[in-house]
């Protein structure tokens, strides 16, 4: 039967409403087709799936892959429609900071017009079309983050939602298991700038001048290149960077011949680069340094567990950065802990950095050395794989702190319970699998109060 889809396109039947298109995918635990009835009962107008259901339906060949491909084509049709109506698609990629930068960018561009951007890390071949499908004639900007699982992946994402402006943040230094080297990672990330329109068609590649692998991508694009960084030769620059006691960076933003002081609302020195990338894109849409600085000062973190700072009633500060971890973000988080702690006692609860392959041991030791050199008082290392962090710290001359190894998040909570005192600063950081956000939550619920009782 005929059906008209007017509402949102959803993959979760619980989000279906009047006019929705429900996309049935075979999940890990459940098959979406089994929920088609529930979606229709909730008002869904039609179902996109790979086997027949009792509803108006778009039937795709080839199982889930066919459904995902069909979803991508729907996304592309809408992307072309909104682009023709004047919207700009901005894509962001990099090894660290995609979600944070996407969130900042969405807020800053929001000052210029309606923005569609995904919540959290909706960055793959399902998240892309679902995000684009939320855009309409009123949309001015679509901001997308592009994650690369391997060569060709970002190129494919760019066929679903072709960006006019592409931002490359950084290329991780680690030998990621599935990639096999920094060059391969650079190859994959650079597909974003290769996909951009040429300069005379409005294509703009925004590149981090302080990352050599990103800077080198200038030769892989026909788009106009805009660079950002902390050096004098970048087009969009940060001068006189300082971290204040809350871990927030202040600096002078220089671009297009103007300059303005900025104090970021997000935490960590690494945010300077993310903010510069955002300013560079904002400049493309006519914002001057002062306007960009003002918008950045208002732009807070939107996605959870990424440098989320909690000030507890007893003066304890908890920095929850438990979303994921790689060597660059680990270093950034530890430096921020150092800046926030200053003369306060500091603890770092650190889980493993996943997917480092042969580099794993050395990278963990290096993190331990950095923590020790920053004067972290207590290192709580969670799980076998993270154990070399403690070795690295213990081997650092002049470190007077304590390193404790615990098996899991619950062990970390116990270790903190007897050590933590009011006014201490705690960083919680590790790869997703470690589930360390639970540690941050426990501390926020008042671990220090019971710790005090115990003393
Ligand atoms: P992604 O989406 O690329 O995984 P997120 O924005 O979710 O990145 O951040 C992941 C981790 O990386 C967080 O710990 C965050 O604090 C850290 N991070 C964010 N931006 C940067 C950056 N420019 N350099 C290093 N680490 C960063």
Describe this structure in words.
This protein has helices spanning 36-41, 63-84, 98-109, 127-132, 153-160, 182-189, 191-194, 212-215, 271-284, 289-298, 327-341, 360-373, 388-394, 409-419, 437-444, 447-454; strands at residues 9-10, 21-23, 46-49, 57-59, 88-93, 115-116, 141-145, 165-168, 204-208, 224-229, 236-243, 248-255, 258-267, 308-311, 317-321, 346-350, 378-382, 402-406, 425-429. With 455 residues, the protein is α/β, with parallel strands linked by helices. It is built from 16 helices and 19 strands. A nine-stranded mixed β-sheet has the order 6-7-5-8-9-10-11-12-13, sandwiched between helices. The chain has a six-stranded mixed β-sheet with strand order 14-15-19-16-17-18, with helices on both faces. The longest helix is centred in the N-terminal third of the chain and has 22 residues, at 63-84. It binds adenosine-5'-diphosphate. Adenosine-5'-diphosphate (ADP) is lined by residues 94, 96-100, 121, 169-170, 268, 270, 273-274, 306-307, 321, 323-324, 328-329, 332-333.
